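Q: My collaborator sent me two sequences in one message, no labels, and asked for predicted structures for both. Can we handle them in order? The first one she listed is below.
A: Yes, handling them in the order given. First sequence, followed by its structure tokens:
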Amino acid sequence: MNCPNCGAPMRLVAKRNYFVCDFCTTFKFPEKKKTGSDRVQTIGVKSETLCPICEMDLTEALIERYPVLHCEKCRGVLATNDEFLKIVRKIRSESKDVQRDHVAINPTELKRQVGCPRCSKTMDVHPYYGPGAVVIDTCPRCQVIWLDHGEISVIETAPGHR
């Protein structure tokens, strides 16, 4: 698939069901759902916080009634550490889907640098040590977590204690 914006080849992001253009950072999401695969329900109110990937205003949203900020372009999610923990506990306790095949973390994801949407300092990039093979971006100063599109679904369907 080629990028509709610049024509460069788009890369499928494994286990997350979307494509990204590494040249111009355009995103392409094949599914058209009212709520995304990460259970995000947008409220429609723009925040003054910018997406660390797209640099667009994040929109207020909910995941399982817990407040988050959501990017409507790349579909990433910014959550506080406390809200993230509540979201993970809730979705894992209710989920019936279990991913059977183990997917290794892509080592190149550990090399990226993302600025914190709150303080602008570089976020820590590391594997999420809970269920699921995802790399997350955290800011220990601001107590927030940035999750790329599809990472919440990977955590939800990961094998292990529910």
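Q: And the one she listed second?
A: Here it is, processed independently of the first:
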Amino acid sequence: MKYTRLTKEQFEIFHEKFAEFLATQQIDNSEWKKIVETNPKMTEEQLDLFSDIVWEDALKNAEYLEHVDPKDLKVFRFKGSKVKMISIKIKGDLDIDLTKSNGITKVFENIMDSRIVIHQGNKKVGRQRNEEMFQLITEGCMITDERIYNALNEAIS
């Protein structure tokens, strides 16, 4: 298994796609029930294979990741063979909570405050792009859209 198995809740979300996946394996609903009851090894293999397919598809289509804590925000953009990271760290007693809806607005309002530390970096990722994205997800990142990344990138440019 390349990634991790989907959770029960995730399988429920993808139940129609899972049925399509089983159909490509020439397994209909009654056959699947029989496999689940009689062949735990094959059940595990099918669940793992489907999970890898879902993760691979999600990662292939993702471009932005985000990790946010009250005093720390990291956004990543995976484009081609490169990843760019922008990080904001709130130091000291500055009253900004990056998990709140007004957190980024407060950062922009106080951008010159020395307690707001912004870093950026670039890295080549090459063929291991999806694996690097998945590692970041296992460390707490979430797939997101371009809004926060673009706003931060524009502000620091």
